[in-house]
Amino acid sequence: MDLKGTAPAPDKHLQLTSELLPAEGDLQVGYRVFELLEKVISFKNELGLAAKWNRHYELSKNKHWKQDSKKATLITANLLFAHRSRTVNTLTDNNPTFNIQHIGETDETKEEILLNLLRTSEFWWGDQEQQGVLEQSIQNGETYGCTIEKVIFNEELEYGIGEVETVLVPGYHFGMYPVKCMDVQKAEAVFHFWPMSVREARRRWPEVAEHITSDKQLLDELGDERIEVSANTRGKLKGYFSTISGVVKNMLNVTGESHGEDDELLVVECWAKDYTRETDGVKSWDKYPGNIRCVTTLNGGKIVCSDRPNPSINPNLPPREARNTYLFDKYPFSFTQSVTDTANPWGMSDYEQLQGLQIELNKTLSQFTLIKDKLSRLKIKNPQDSGVDNSEFTNAPGIINPANAMVSEAIKYMDLPNVPFQDLSAALGIYKDFFYLVAGTFELEQAQTPGREVIAYKAIATLLERAATMMRGKIRSYSKMIRMRGRMYLSHVMNWYTTERWISYEIEGEEMTTAIRGTKMVIPSKLNVISGSTLPRSKIAEREEAMELYGQQAIDNQELLKKLEWPNWREVIKRMQLGPLGDLLEKLEKIGTPPPLIEFMAEAQQIDMKDFDFMLERGQIPTIQQLLTPEDMQQQIPPTDQAEVEKTMAEVQKIFAEIALTQEKARTEQVEQAVKLAGVEFDQEKLRIEKAKVAGDIRATEEELKLKEKDIDTTLEAAKIKGGNGDATKTAKKREQGPHIEKGLKSDNE
After folding, report:
1. How many other CB atoms are found less than 10 A from the CB of residue 87?
2. Is there a single domain that holds both residue 585 and residue 530?
């Protein structure tokens, strides 16, 4: 590449053009990039972003006091750090759950491509430790108010075949133009600039190595003082670029500056929109895919290392297919705000709301500690005429000799002052409660207070849902960031996975592998992330629900063991599927038994013997000759294994016989139970018949007695009518007297 940085300083009267940057090859390209960068950084300087970010970093490092005090102990209880840690851990507790949908009509071929894209995304997320990158990215967002990710294809990764990489870009090293642009994809230009050693720059761009020098002055003016904060050598915050002309002048005319290989320089990468078109006289087309152009420049614009079309697009990919990739017309950056600010593109963080309460809490703690320390050092009244020297008053046991008894009564401890400890404790509690109330984590904090522990899994799940509600805005923002990262990744897959690669995935607990090639999977598609899938889930609640669903037969054994996270659950399921012949089948497999025979035995042992005979008669059970291929039939068993095979086959026959005997016993038991049940029903019917017969006899006897009584009454009536029939009268009297008649006695009744 030709050196483009040998031109004089940029002319203030650049030729007017419809494009943001001069044409490729123009000597002013690099200077124009730095001119735009100066506007971006000046705007950030007006907002005071560097000072704010440095202060937030100090607060994260527990450096809350601007200076130490020799008179008092300064205490900090860093609730800001606790709040940030809780938020980051909550938002990254689980890996995200993806799904991919096709844009347009879908057939079987496209369905297979979509499935492979989904498996590729999940594999990349785990293989390239993207969950760890997500944690760092959200931590940046919660500290500084915004987080920036850059997704690129790095050709140096994975032993030279290349891999997609997610780069975290600090806010110090990022900017958009126009400066008040709220959406990174709507910006005319996006800047990524970072320090690099002179040695590395000369290695990366050898064609301009002899012209590369250090940029110490520019780096000092970026405002990033986090290293100084960590080393406790933070100095006065410096300004940014004064003017682009001054920067260039300093770069071109600086004298006495070290240009050693250990010095650093500023690398500026400008991604800009460029709608330049090319023509062959018949038709015209866009020079840059998606109208995106990338310029890399050093040393204040003096050196232009590269000026190339959209680096996210493979030039060998047909234009029609390239248009179906996500990054065809987009920058490979995502810009996410922690707390949405519709007026400031750089967003805001929770620190801005909680910093004041944190300071007051620290002051209250320090005041409490100061009073406690003073009270722990009690004063002694020692009159000057006591005759006892002050040095004799120590913590060790000893004897003092006052001058007289009156003076001895005057030697005593001073009375303790009336210090309002309760007021200080109440103030401390108020600040703490307000801190968690503003932070939106008050409920969780209260749930963990001693004496109020939450144990029920439903209550824990409710608390997690409540925490998710309080973080709903952050969840939406970071879910979008994950979605953008995934779509950018798939775009790079379609462009740069030009050779066959192997990925692994899981189906029903089994680890599977397949080969993919990104250039064969170019279809218009969108990757989505299930909102809230990265949030914590109560494992206790999931296990309880799984056991309840299993009891209702809504899920099977495999799903239950997965939810319980049972050790070696795949082996357990495998043994359950094999049944009682599991160990034996494994032995047969180890000695070389053909797989079709093993599979048949595993299936046959689950068939009832009666059904087996019926299926055998109808020819639905294959014979050994049908199961084994000619190659299996010709396979020779080694003589050393012949005895083992015969022994194993004998065990198989024994097990089948035991299974048949067990089934026969079961059928016999069923018959006996049926007979007993029939006998019980017969006895019950017989009892009903006997009961009916007895009831009939009783009714007949009652009717007969009624008829006899009626005859007697009729006879008595007839006797009364005749009036004097002695026999009838005697008979009636006899009935009236009853069965016991006393002879020779008379009644004494009057």
Report:
1. 23
2. no
Instruction: Confirm whether 151 is domain-assigned.
Output: yes
Q: How far apart are CA 546 and CA 557, in angstroms?
A: 10
213, part of any domain: no
- Give, as one character, the DSSP assignment of residue 269: E
Query: Which CA distances in Å does 139 have to 64, 184, 337, 597?
Result: 19, 20, 12, 57
Is 33 within a domain? no
Asked whether the beta carbons of 354 and 370 are under 8 A apart, the reply is no
Q: What is residue 534's DSSP assignment?
A: T
| Overall pTM surpassing 0.85 (yes/no) | no
Write out pLDDT tens, residues 224-273. 666 555 555 443 334 434 444 344 444 444 433 444 556 889 999 999 99
Q: What are phi and psi of 499, to 5 degrees?
A: -115, 165
Q: Is the dihedral of CA 379, 381, 382, 384 positive or negative?
A: positive
Are 587 and 522 within one domain?
A: no
In the chain, the number of structural domains is 2
Based on the domain organization, do 529 and 588 belong to the same domain? no
**Domain identity same for 438 and 529:** yes
Question: pLDDT tens for residues 190-232?
Answer: 999 999 999 999 999 999 999 998 887 677 666 666 655 555 5
The C-alpha R_g of the chain, in whole angstroms, comes to: 48
Residue 668 belongs to what domain range?
581-634+642-672
- In angstroms, rounded to a whole number, what is the distance separating the alpha carbons of residues 441 and 220? 39
594 and 458 in a single domain? The answer is no
Mark whether 350 and 486 lie in a shared domain: yes
54 lies in a domain?
Answer: yes
Which residues lie below 8 Å from residue 527, measured CB to CB, with a gap of 6+? 98, 99, 100, 117, 121, 483, 486, 487, 490
Instruction: Give the residue with greater pLDDT, 424 vs 492.
Output: 492
Most confident of 7-16, 154-163, 408-417, 651-660: 154-163
Q: Are 526 and 586 contained in the same domain?
A: no
Same domain membership, residue 598 and residue 522: no
Residue 503's φ and ψ, nearest 5 degrees, are -125, 160
Residue 608 pLDDT greater than 60, yes or no: yes
In angstroms, the CA 701 to CA 718 distance is: 26
